[in-house]
Amino acid sequence: MELTWSIPPVLGPxxxxxxxxxxxxxxxxxxxxxxxxxxxxxxxxxxLRTAAIILLxxxxxxxxxxxxxxxxxxxxxxxxxxxxASMALxxxxxxxxRWERAGRLAAIADSLLAFHAPGIDAVFMRGNGLTGAGxxxxxxxxxxxxxxxxxxxxxxxxxxxxxLAKSRSDRSLKAMIVLTDGHETDSDAGSxxxxxxxxxxxxxxxxxxxxxxxxxxxxxxxxxxxxFQGDEIVVEATIxxxxxxxEETARRVTLHLVQDGDTLTTVxxxxxxxxxxxxxxxSFEARRPxxxxxxxxxxxxxxERYLANNQASLAIAVRQERSRLLLxxxxxxxxxxxxxxxALSESRLTLDVAYPGPSGFVIADSLGSWEPPQTVExxxxxxxxxxxxxxxxxxxxxxxxxxGAVRNGLGLLVLPPFEIGGTDRELVAxxxxxxxxxxxxxxxxxxxxxxxxxxPLLSHLGTGEDGGGFADLPPLSLLVxxxxxxxATELLSASSLRGGAASRPLLLTGKAGAGTVTLFxxxxxxxLCRWQxxxxxxxxxxxxxVRLARNMLVWTALGRSLAGVTIAGHRNLYREGESxxxxxxxxxxxGDDRGRPVSLRLTRLDGDVxxxxxxxxxxxxxxxxxxxxxxxPLLPPARYQVQPIYAGTDSAAGPARPFVVVSSSLEEMQxxxxxxxxxxxxxNWGGPFLDGNDESVIAHLSDALAAMDWSAATVEAESRSxxxxxxxxxxxxxxxxxxxxxxxxxxxxL
Length: 750
Description:
By secondary structure, the chain is an alpha+beta fold. The protein has 5 domains: 2-68 and 721-746, no CATH class; 75-210 and 672-711, von Willebrand factor, type A domain (Rossmann fold, 3-Layer(aba) Sandwich), CATH 3.40.50; 215-319, Sandwich (Immunoglobulin-like); 323-562, Class I glutamine amidotransferase (GATase) domain (Rossmann fold, 3-Layer(aba) Sandwich), CATH 3.40.50; 564-662, Immunoglobulin-like, CATH 2.60.40. The chain contains 13 helices and 39 strands. Helix 3 (98-116) links the parallel strand 3 and strand 4 (121-127). Helix 2 runs antiparallel to helix 13 (727-746) and helix 3 runs parallel beside helix 12. The protein is flat. The relative contact order is 0.13.
């Protein structure tokens, strides 16, 4: 037992001095009190009040008694059986299910524990790490007497073991015996190799056939998450030919793509004898807008026992149309080529290029004649307009109606050269600049403005995890010096390599009414895009200037939809039993990661009717400003949509995103014991792996249990008793002051 204090030790002498000063002051006050009291009575009154003050100062110091309690705790062990649908497969020795085999081995483990550690507290559980573990009831024969056959979807072995270890943290948990087929569907890859708990022996017992029967299975799928109506969609599938003999491998493999019971397309291939897999590619046209669900099915082999892994689902969001951009240029050149190429690489956009011909404007590629819109409403045919300079357009374009369309929501991207003060003065008035100067030759090095990396215009142009590469671009040869308007956002700047001049804005964006306006102040965008990276440049890194050109086009067409709260990393399809974690990113039109707190509203879609399924609070993601995260519960198969909403309201903070949860075939695809994974876990966790199909598994299990330390453990617990909080101290202070008051009154003192 020891006395501890809440205050820092350096403050102890200060409180002592304060108590002495209070005592001297009280003594002096009572010496001057009228009428005066006898010396003994005056000393008593001084002592009572001083004692009350000392008790209050004592309380400020926060004294507490700290006691260490020790007790002996008997050893305990947890025997846990994986509770997932794959354990119901019948491939254990004797034709019984994995679940039945695990039950028999659990009964044997019970007997061995009673022999090696009499009186041990043995706890039998069932769980999968995704839902709470429950008691596993057995009779003495080892059968599963009161528990149903496992039907749960998904397994997280590390989560299962960690949760059970935490639940017995107050006990002397010596070991865990885990009976599992080794398949995990939801394990954190970054932490799966960590030991579940320090000092706990983990025995992994593999259940199920380690080889498995001959099997055709869909191993890998590649397909686009989104497509546009009328596009050709290509699906690449790899089909594994597991444990197939050369004769069986030589049979034709046929793959069907089905939607709502109708076969859309079928492909087939003849593998070479001895092949372990075959790759097939099929294509079809996207016709129905919205979230489309398809089934991919492989025709089964004659001797195939498990068919669930012959099929898979895929979900593709089909959009009705791409966003349209109009590029107007008076002098077609390299900038036009660069922007046209950027538009071709962006699936969300289509770009029409118009330029003056001998008898009026023409549209590139088709060479058809075209007349510029003369009304604000006519410009609404496009989502944005790109101008690669205004020279050469003269008065053929109605700048007044274009300016009105921008104020109504049309996006605008402008590159020099300009005729400042000429016929395009209404256009210049929209740009996010306050002052202009004539273009200057030289060497201008582009750099990113500090603190704007979060802006959508700079996606994948930053450093480190965001892609890097922008700092490697060469200098520009021409820049139009401007001064940014007060409400403009400067994203890129350019500084002269000759020195002596302050940096100038290179990329500015702002708002004009409801529309977004973006200005790139150099006509040399094309030279950046044509720059060849130096040797050693990361091959998987996208060319920074090409990415910038694409970002400017996307922002011009979709800038308004890129602001607000968006769902990041969203998927169209999840499997039953798979955990779903969604993140949101909040940005305003300036790219600032700010906004009101939001929640996620989950809606289940039954036909055309939506039924709200819950609202989930978002937690901030550490180190990522503006990013929040919410974990949804395990969802049954159905169509859903999730939408960010302002917390405490019913107002939408961002667009809704649909997704579908399909009946999982993950469990039925686990047609063999994953011995390799179990051995890896056992190696990382420092425990043995035992094959439950081995005839000597009982002897190995007995040896492993005999080698463990089953002695009782001494558990220490600290008990802290506060001496300053609660009623006893304040009662003592009240009694001292009450007695002082009574004696003062008896002496006639005020």
